[in-house]
Amino acid sequence: MAAEEKGEGCAPKQQEEAEPGGQREPGALRGRQLPEAGRFAYAALCGISLAWLFPENEQSSFRTEFIKGFVKWLDLPDAVLPAMTAFADGLGGEGTETFTEILLKDPILKENPLLITQVRSYDARARVLICRVSWLLRIPLEDLEVLEESLLESLKEQKEEESENACLGFLRDNSLVISLAACSGLTGGLAAPLVAAGAATIIGSAGAAALGSTAGIAVMASLFGAAGAGLTGYKMKKRVGAIEEFEFLPLTEGKQLHITIAITGWLCTGKYGSFTAPWSSMLHSSEQYCLAWESKYLMELGNALDSLLNGFVNMMAQEALKFTVLSGIVTALTWPASLLTVASVIDNPWGVCLHRSAEVGKHLAHILLSRQQGQRPVTLIGFSLGARVIYFCLQEMAQEKDSQGIIEDVVLLGAPVEGEAKHWRALTRVVSGRIINGFCRGDWLLSFVYRTSSVQLNVAGLQPVDLDDRRMVNMDLSSVVNGHLDYMKQMDTILKAVGIKTKECQLEERGSGSLFSPQARKSQRAAGSEARGEENTRKEEAEAGSEALPAGCAHRQNSSSSALREPFPPCPDCSHSTDSKDQAVGKGAN
Amino acid sequence: MDEDVLTTLKILIIGESGVGKSSLLLRFTDDTFDPELAATIGVDFKVKTISVDGNKAKLAIWDTAGQERFRTLTPSYYRGAQGVILVYDVTRRDTFVKLDNWLNELETYCTRNDIVQMLVGNKIDKENREVDRNEGLKFARKHSMLFIGMLQILAEIFLEFCCIRKSTTSVGLRVFMGTVQLMVFLTCAGHKDNGCSSFLKLCLSRYLF
């Protein structure tokens, strides 16, 4: 065979590995030591994923830059660039299976299913891409986070050391390292590798990790925000607009490569008297903040809600209301006279907070845009008016330049905002991961406060947002949430249902992580991926039938995985659907 | 510019290593010849817009790597291809013999059953010719017959001989235009859903074989 190649040289693997690329740096990443076909497949996989994740025209420079940097990083010759760019632009992205198969079959990957993804700029889009690729390669997301943590450790250790090596030698020993390198680093030397590891043992070897950067301190500063102080260091210097209070409270003591900001909707006396109270069980990332805003007004609102529900409207009436709202005949809904007479109790504080939340949202947008949080992806979670804050934050960001790649996921629960798809379209520009709209059909309170408004028939917190975008995920929480107040009280359950990590599941993971050997872990993963497949179909069913009954999501709540941890509901075979779409278009033209 | 392009046709070039697939593409797109052309890695991609009677079509051409080590990657490109150009080297019999494997692979992975196939015997300018013209023609005829037998008039193999090295513009163009013409022809033959869409329909009136 080789003789027939006429000098083209069918290079065997050994030769491959001895290529200069592999030898140049002693600590070179294993990703570059994949056989050429493997590297090609890996780059192609990323290209196709990029095209799938960010098909918008405005993202084309990001895609091109990213893939260019990645090809270079993988030591692939420039000749493959046109093909890769074509992949990244959505041409020929018919299937990822072949590429995935090749990578999964690769002996190096089989022996040690460890994967590193490296990015120069740890942008939300990059993280979403990494999650997607990890998912395609059947690597659990939890492993990714473990590696994120260990990277952080090494960053901390190394931050004062300087190294000539601008690249990164991370886990160089027994691990296969596949990297995603983004060239468009706003941060210059920032090299943040992410590893999705096969076993928890990786953490041990992470001690040997060496992060090289021309200026470690600068890296740390840019990664974690101005002078490392980050969000807690942010103090509103002067009264901004109509905002009286705006502060970030740390929810967890930790540092991580991605952060979560939770926004509370109102305050109550008693157990839920603080901003942090509803989020006590949340552990989506080890660095979480809670936004404290306008506590005076939120407290007023909370009290109004309390008195409304516990005094003026009795339980029976509430149940009746719930079912009236649930039945969907909102137009014909006649509010009980008893409720209408006390309407002013709620209407006033609600109106004030509605206005304030929009202002706060805009302010939050500018803080995020100024990168107070550093170069890290941010996930925003909020309920009720907190969701409104997020909504306005995103709307504001969408109008600004350079707003892409900051927000990873957003979760809006019972959002008192308009639910028309055209208004939500703008959000897709800003959010890289998913936009989750958690709604409850029987939320009579939300329906009530919107009774006079023109958008009353179209409130996001009451119904799904009909936006055709891969990012948009609608979750019917009707079975979990009985009324608007439940968003606060049932937060733990809701978080689980939506797929935000809570302390409980974190513990479970840790437990299983250390118990299983890599082998067992592998089989576990295989099983997991099957289960995911099932859930996909189930989810689709649920979505298809979401019109029918709120009970449809009951099992979703019980199943351990859900929207966030199952990052990409459409499976890699989604190409089929695009195929058929193409054909449909073709037919239409005929 | 993309607005007046009526359709994008996906064309795939396959064949054994070193038969001149990339050179063929280079001749078509840039009209040059590079004797030192390195082996393709994975796949190469080129776009060329062609115009037939003022109707523009974009050809998205995927030039695959013939080398064994990239063979595993090839299946992913087959999907959605509308035209395939099979290339063999007339000075190397083995590349001709292996055409059968390529055809098998094509049948296995290709998602549409009306794919247009064009057979190209390359390097006819070389002295030590091993596969003669008739053999090629016979092969082409046999397989088009076969396809006609099985799937009525679904696909045909047309044979084109060329020497990329010495030729001028016309050769590459002839091969690709031939492929496109075949698509037109098939549309003409009454195949509704072969995806070549309006472009080919518009071309029908002028293109006759």
From TrEMBL, chain A:
| Skewed-composition ranges (Basic and acidic residues) | 531-542
Region annotation Disordered: where it falls in the sequence: 1-29, 509-590
Q: How does it sit in the membrane?
A: Multi-pass membrane protein
Q: Which InterPro entries match?
A: AB_hydrolase_fold (IPR029058), DUF726 (IPR007941)
Transmembrane annotation, as ranges: 176-203, 209-231, 323-346
**What cellular-component terms does GO give this entry?**
membrane
Keywords of the record, alphabetical order, are:
Membrane, Transmembrane, Transmembrane helix
What family is reported?
A: Belongs to the TMCO4 family.
What protein name does the entry list? Answer: Uncharacterized protein
UniProtKB/TrEMBL annotation, chain B:
Q: Mind naming one GO cellular-component term on file for this protein?
A: Golgi apparatus
> Keywords assigned by UniProt?
GTP-binding, Hydrolase, Lipid droplet, Lipoprotein, Nucleotide-binding, Prenylation, Protein transport, Transport
| EC number(s) reported in the record | 3.6.5.2
> Which CDD domains does the annotation name?
Rab18 (cd01863)
* Subcellular localization, as worded in the UniProt entry: Golgi apparatus, cis-Golgi network membrane; Lipid droplet
**Superkingdom assignment:** Eukaryota
Q: Which GO terms describe its biological process?
A: protein transport
Where mainly located?
Golgi
The family database entries (SUPFAM superfamilies) matched by this protein are listed as: P-loop containing nucleoside triphosphate hydrolases
**Catalysed conversion reaction:** GTP + H2O = GDP + phosphate + H(+)
An example of a GO molecular function for this protein is: G protein activity
- PROSITE patterns with a match to the protein in the record: RAB, RAS, SIGMA54_INTERACT_1
- InterPro entries recorded: P-loop_NTPase, Rab, Sigma_54_int_dom_ATP-bd_1, Small_GTP-bd, Small_GTPase
Record NCBIfam families: small_GTP
Q: What family is this protein classified in?
A: Belongs to the small GTPase superfamily. Rab family.
> What protein is this chain from?
small monomeric GTPase
Species, as recorded: Geospiza parvula
